[in-house]
Specification:
Radius of gyration: 21 Å
Order of helices and strands: HEHHEEHEEEEEEHHHHH
Largest sheet: 6 strands, mixed
Number of strands: 9
Distance between the termini: 66 Å
Shape: globular
Number of helices: 9
Strand content: 5-15%
Length: 289
């Protein structure tokens, strides 16, 4: 029986894998293929503390960057065939090949980079440029307006080899990653998120901590099991948790971190988690402390 010819995306992925670049398929809209239920809770190796792609052995690509591989046998396996048939593009894990991508999303961001970062290999993107440096760092989105840093535990769309020689990762990029973004509020371990208490003094109407624990556990499970539209599902579940538990003072930072962790393990960025949380708070007429 004649085997179907590899797709354009698969051929490109095999070429990159042969160069030692870990790759994965992207769906239309630049999103990774959805997580599989077999690997719920990142059982295949997509744990948050990992610094290299996980050894995913499930039936389909999952966990975004952790599914990236250089193994042609995996890329051409029957389990991955549906993903490549649907793929609109190829992504790679920059940190897995010792690189960092500074993703500049608009002309203002490019102008800022030209004034503040050393020249390096540059790749044109849909709306801006990728500046690629030799070295790895923790990934972080929104480090400046229109600027994301993609390296360890992240993926970037493959847009070609680019032009120019690779420069070492500058301290200016490391400082951006370490700096608190000015546009988002990060929760601290010591301060709970609070909201205006209802009339009656704000005593917890749930009476038992087990009620809150069940609510958080159910929300985490539903985030893990959301088949598609994870971003929308995260917002809806944040809204549901806040609507029940947000006004009595029992919801703490530890609970919120559990929800954020579940969302991030499904591919949501910290920025998107914080935005979804803030939007849910605003929708219910509450506020952060």
């Amino acid at each position: 029986m004649t085997q179907p010819a590899p797709s354009v995306q698969l051929r490109a992925a095999l070429d990159l894998a042969g160069q030692g670049i870990p790759v994965l398929p992207l769906r239309e809209g630049k999103g990774p293929m959805g997580n599989c239920r077999t690997c719920r809770n990142n059982a295949c190796g997509g744990r948050p503390n990992m610094k290299t792609p996980g050894p995913c052995v499930c039936a389909a690509p999952c966990h975004a960057w952790a599914a990236a591989t250089t193994d042609p046998a995996v890329l051409t396996s029957p389990a991955w065939s549906p993903a490549w048939r649907q793929a609109a593009a190829v992504a790679y894990h920059p940190g897995g090949t010792g690189l960092t991508v500074v993703d500049l999303d608009n002309a203002d961001a490019i102008a800022w980079a030209g004034q503040n970062l050393p020249r390096t290999r540059i790749v044109a993107s849909t709306r801006g440029q990728h500046w690629i440096y030799l070295g790895t760092v923790t990934s972080r989105n929104g480090v400046r307006p229109g600027v994301d840093v993609k390296s360890l535990m992240s993926y970037a769309r493959w847009l070609g080899p680019g032009t120019g020689a690779l420069a070492p990762l500058p301290d200016a990029v490391r400082a951006l990653v370490a700096k608190e973004p000015a546009t988002v509020r990060r929760a601290s371990a010591s301060s709970p998120v609070t909201a205006p208490v209802p009339s009656g003094g704000g005593e917890c109407r749930h009476r038992s901590p087990a009620y809150l624990e069940r609510g958080i556990a159910m929300a985490v499970q539903r985030i893990e099991q959301a088949p598609d539209g994870v971003h929308r599902a995260v917002y809806r579940l944040f809204l549901a948790v806040l609507s029940v538990h947000g006004r009595c003072g029992c919801l703490t930072d530890a609970h919120i971190k559990r929800l954020f962790k579940a969302a991030q393990e499904r591919g949501e960025s910290l920025r998107h988690c914080e935005d979804a949380w803030s939007n849910a708070v605003a929708s219910l007429g509450m506020r952060h402390a």
